[in-house]
Amino acid sequence: MDKQDWDEITAIGTAIAAGFTAVMAIVTAVMAWYTRKAIKEGQTQRQETNVHFALTRDQDKQHHEDSFRPLLVLTPSRPEDAFDRNAIVETTYAPSVPAVFVNCTLCNIGSGSALNVNLTVRSERRTGFGPTRELAPIAANGKFTD
After folding, report:
1. Are the C-beta atoms of 88 and 81 separated by less than 8 Å?
2. Do 61 and 85 reside in the same domain of the chain?
3. What confidence tens digit (pLDDT) does each residue in 22-59 have?
4. pLDDT tens for residues 88-107?
C-alpha cells in the first residue's frame, strides 16, 4: 500500500471517528436531558413527601392532643332516672324566685383534665340568659362534687 491508500484509509477512519463522536455527543446530550428530568422529578417527589410528612406530623400531633382532651357529660344522679328526662330537671316556684334543680352529676369521661369549666344553664335556646358558674377543675374519669 502506498501513501495515497493510507491517506484514504486515514480519511475514512477520521470520518467514521468524527461521525461516531457526533453520535456519542448526541447520545450524551439525550442522557443529560433524561438525567435532568429525573433530578427534577426526584425534587418534586421530595417536596411532595415533605408536604405529606408535615401534614402527617400535624395530624399525629392533633391526634395526640385529642387523646388527652376532657369530655364532660351530665349523668343522672339516680340510675332509675337514666331514661326519664323529666326527672333530671325539677322546677319549683318559690313565692318570688323560681328555682331549677338539675339532678345530674357532671362527669369527665375523657382522658384529660378539664381545667376551665364554666357551666351555663340556658332556657328555651336563648343565649346570654341564665345562670353561669365557674367550676373547679375535674380530673380525668372524675366527677364534679360541690
Report:
1. yes
2. no
3. 999 999 999 999 999 999 999 999 999 999 999 999 99
4. 767 777 777 777 777 788 88
Containing structural domain, residue 31: 1-67
C-alpha cell at 98: 323560681
Whether 140 maps to a domain, the answer reads: no
Contact (CB, 8 A) for 134 and 144: no
What's the rounded Cα separation, in Å, for the pair 137 and 116? Answer: 6
- If you compute the radius of gyration of the chain from its CA atoms, what whole number of angstroms results? 41
Angle among Cα 117, 144, 142 to the nearest 5 degrees reads 100
Choose among 114, 116, 119: nearest CA to 104.
119
- State residue 17's pLDDT score: 87
Position 109 pLDDT exceeds 70: yes
Domain termination residue (choose one: 46, 67, 88): 67
Question: Cα 104 to the chain's mean position, in Å?
Answer: 35
Asked if the structure places residue 112 within a domain, the reply is yes
User: In three state form, how does the secondary structure of 9-32 look?
Assistant: HHHHHHHHHHHHHHHHHHHHHHHH
Average pLDDT on 55-80 reads 86
| Predicted structure pTM score | 0.51
CB 90 within 8 A of CB 101: yes
